[in-house]
Specification:
It is built from 9 helices and 9 strands. Helix 7 runs parallel beside helix 9. The relative contact order is 0.14. It has a single domain (13-240), classed as Spore Coat Polysaccharide Biosynthesis Protein SpsA, Chain A. By secondary structure, the chain is an alpha/beta fold. 41% of the residues lie in helices and 22% in strands. Strands 1, 2, 3, 4, 5, 6, 7, 8 and 9 form a 9-stranded mixed sheet that branches. It is globular, with a radius of gyration of 22 Å.
Length: 260
């Protein structure tokens, strides 16, 4: 693994991993990033107040991982802290229980090279049952599709300036932080490409946030409503702005006719 110098020829990528009590799978997640065939990146791990051995696991990688600790505030705060600490021209994220394919960054950076105006690149996500789940448990946790288009933060690579045009993660949301961010990105007109290849492996286990925090699922409806409200307001603002220009043009034309 190499965290090469920041150069224009080999753009530097910052990878942010937030963790809270993720000792069970964290080592595998970090190793999947460090095994990337892309040669210019840094790994920033933000510990959101873990009480297990997550911090020790992160520190065991030495200088390969930049470790930062904060009091428990939530994943959104941890990801935003990681962005503050990052130095890369490109940003990427990985949850502490998921894995990257070793060629994720190489494939996605190649897309940016061929499409210099694109803002972000996604890839396919393959979902898999964690090895400790028995058959009975697997039947209760259904996977909609083993491989699917990965509109997840873990499958995304994005230009830093494009990310900041949208803004950081909204820390109000505990379950839908990325969905909210992605909707805001669409509203801002960010462009994206979806790769046909798998770039991320999403682990399904008994303690997934979506399973553990079922009570927070109504967040999704609130996030969608907030997006619709913003779009309606943008449309109203656009109409009002158009009317202002029309009024201005009428005045200019009227003034011109008066002089003639």
């Amino acid at each position: 693994m190499s965290t090469g110098a920041m150069t224009d020829k080999v753009p530097f990528v910052s990878v942010v991993i937030p963790v809270f009590n993720g000792e069970k799978y964290l080592r595998e997640a970090i190793e999947s990033v460090l095994s990337q065939t892309y040669g210019s990146f840094e790994v920033i791990l933000v510990d959101d107040g873990s009480t297990d051995n997550s911090g020790e696991i992160a520190k065991s990688f030495g200088s390969q991982v930049r470790y930062s600790y904060q009091e428990n505030r939530g994943q959104g705060f941890a990801m935003n802290r990681g962005i503050e600490l990052s130095r890369g021209r490109f940003l990427s994220f990985l949850d502490d229980d998921d894995l990257w394919k070793k060629d994720k960054l190489v494939r996605q950076m190649a897309v940016f090279k061929d499409n210099p105006d694109i803002d972000m690149v996604f890839g396919q996500v393959e979902q898999f049952y964690s090895s400790e789940l028995d058959e009975n448990r697997r039947k209760k946790i259904k996977i909609p599709a083993k491989v699917m288009p990965g509109f997840f933060k873990g499958s995304m690579l994005i230009r830093r300036d494009s990310f900041l045009r949208v803004g950081t993660f909204d820390t109000r949301w505990k379950l839908g932080d990325f969905i909210d961010w992605y909707l805001r990105a669409r509203e801002k007109g960010l462009t994206s490409i979806m790769l046909g290849e798998v770039v991320m492996l999403r682990r399904i286990h008994a303690n997934n946030t979506g399973i553990r925090e079922r009570r927070l699922r109504p967040e999704f409806a609130r996030i969608l409503k907030a997006s619709l409200d913003r779009r309606r307001q943008q449309k109203r603002d656009s109409v009002e702005l158009s009317n202002v220009f029309c009024d201005f043009d009428d005045i200019r034309v009227s003034g011109t006719n008066t002089k003639s």
